[in-house]
Hints:
The complex is a heterodimer. Chain A is an alpha/beta fold. Chain A has one domain: Aconitase, domain 4 (Alpha-Beta Barrel). Chain A is 33% helix and 18% strand. Chain A has helices at 14-17, 28-31, 43-46, 67-74, 87-96, 104-109, 141-149, 152-161, and strands at residues 2-7, 52-55, 79-82, 100-102, 115-119, 124-127, 133-135. In chain A, strands 4-3-2-1-5-6-7 form a seven-stranded mixed beta sheet. Chains A and B meet through helix 5, helix 7 and helix 8 of A and helix 2, helix 3 and helix 5 of B. The complex binds iron/sulfur cluster. Iron/sulfur cluster (SF4) binds at residues 65-66, 102-104, 123, 125, 299-300, 360, 363-364, 381-382 of chain B.
Amino acid sequence: MEGNVFKYGANVDTDVIIPARYCTSFHKEELAPHCLEDLDATFAKRVQPSDIIVAGRNFGCGSSRENAPLAILGAGVGAVVAESFARIFYRNSINVGLPILECPEAAQAAQNGDRLAIDLEKGVIRNLTRGGQYTAVPFPESIRRIMEIGGLEEYVKHRLMTNDK
Amino acid sequence: MPQTIAQKILSRHAGKESVQNGELIFAKVDMVLGTDVTVPLSVEVFRRMGAKKVFDPAKIALVNDHFIPAKDLKAAQLSQIMRQFAQEMDAPHFFEVGRSGICHVLLPDEGLVKPGDLVVGADSHTCTYGALGAFSTGIGSTDMACAWALGELWFRVPSTIKVEVTGKLPKWVGGKDIALYVIGKLGVEGALYKALEFTGDTIRNLPMDGRFTLCNLAIEAGAKTGLVASDDKTAAFMAQFPQLKWDPVFSDPEAAYSEEYTFDVSDLQPQVAKPYLPSNAVPVGDLKGVKVDQVVLGSCTNGHLSDFQLAAEAMRGRKVHPHTRLVVIPSSHKVMLELLDSGLARTFTEAGAVIGPPTCGPCIGGHMGILAQNEVGLYTTNRNFVGRNGHPSSQVYLAGPAVAGATAVAGEISSP
Ligand code: SF4
C-alpha cells in the first residue's frame, strides 16, 4: 500500500476524529465527509484512497465510539501510523479492520505530504520521500489470530456456526 | 503468585489460576452495557454475526442517555432500534426515557454491578464501576456484539499502577479534584493500557460518590480501568441490595505494580483543567478572572445529589451572574426526585438556573446547552477536547461542583 501523509500531533481525540453531532449515524459513508472536521476542515476533501494518517502519541483517545475508525475507513484512509494508540481505539480498529501501526520512529520522521509505502503483513513502513525504513511494533500473537480470521465479527460467526460457545 | 485486583478478577473470569500482564485471554462477562449511541451499530454487527439470542438477557443493560429525549429524528431512530432490540431479546434492564439516567450513575444505583464483577460497556467511562471493586472497562460496538453473542470477550491483562492518596481533604475539595490532580501528574496517556488502583487513607475516607467520580476519570489518564478495593463503605452501598451475593477481591500485599505514586492532598486547592485536555489541571486560584458564559452541573462524573448540594452551598444563596447561564442536569430519574425532595430544584431555579432532564446532553455537545463560537464554559464533566461541547472555537474548563457553583454566581472562574 502506498499513500501520501496527513500529519497531526499528539492526543488526536475521538471528538475531533468524528464529533458527537455526527454520531447519530454509524455508517462509514455518512461519517466520512466529517472525518477530522474540527482538527483539519479540509482533510475530508483532500484525502485520496490509501492515503495515510501519521500522528503522535495517544491517537484516538477519548470516547469508545466505533464511529471514529469507521469515519477514517470511510474517508478511504489506508492506514494510521502513530507513536501510540489509545486502547479502545486500538481494539475498535482491530475489530473493524482499520490497519494501525504503532511506530514512533516512522511517525516522528514523516512529514506532511511525504509518500509512504507500507507492507501490512510485515509491519514495514518505508518513507519514499525521505528514504527511511521502519518496523512497527508487532501485534501480539492472539490478536493476529483474530485478525487472520477476518476480525472479531468473523471470529464470532465462526464460533456460532461451529456451536463453540 | 501474588496478584493484583485486576489480575484476580480477570483470571477468575477466564477460568484460570492466574494470569500474566500482557497475556491475551477470553473471559466471561457479568454485565454488558450499551447506550442509544452505541447499541444500534452493535445490533447490526450482531445480526451479521448470525447471532439470534444474547447469551443472557439479564446480563445486558440498554440505557437511553446520550441523545435523549430524542434531540432529532436520527436520535429518535437510534433509540427506536435499541427499544426494539430490548423487546426482541426480552431484556429486563432496558431503561426508557423518564425512568432512565446516565448509564454510569444508573447501573450501580440499580444494583447491576457488584464488587468482583467483570463488566464491559460500549462507553469509555465504564471504568466508573471500579469504585465498587469491579473490573470494568470500555469497549466498542463490535466488541459489544461479540459479548452479547458469546458472553465473553478478549482482554489483554493490564499491569497496574498503584496511586496512594494520603491526607485529610480540605473543605470544598473532593473526588474530582483528586482525579484532575492525579491526571495532571500522570498525563492523558500516563496510564495507557494499564489499570489504576487507588489506595491510601484519603480514598478510605472518600464517600462512594467521590470514588465513582475518581474512577470515572481513570480513562482520562488512558487507563483501562480505575479500581478501589472494597471496604465498609462499599459494603454499606451494597447493603441496598440484600439479595445480591458478592465476593470482594483484594490485591495481595506482595503483588507487583508497574509504578507506584504517592500524593499528599492535605493542602490541595480545588483543581481546574484548562482547555483542551483533562490533564491541564491547575489550582483554581491560577485562573481567577476568566469570564464564563455557561456553567454545566451534572454528567456521569458529578451527577449525584451530593454534587448538587455542594454546588448549591458554594452559591451561598446568590443568583446566577447576569452574564452567565447555569445548566443543571440531574444524572438520573432518581437524582431528579432527590433534587425535588431536597428543595434543591427550587434553589437552583430561583437562582436563575435551568434544570434539564436526565441526559448526557451538553457533556457530549449533543443538546440542552451547546456552546457558541468563542464561548467559554466551566463544566463538571470529564472531557474538554476541541469541539466536544459545541463550536470548535469554544473552550471548556473542567472542575468539581464547588468551583462550578462559585463560578456560576461570580460569572468568572472563582474559588468557593
Ligand atoms: S455524561 Fe458525558 S461522559 Fe458520561 S456517559 Fe454521558 S456523554 Fe459520556
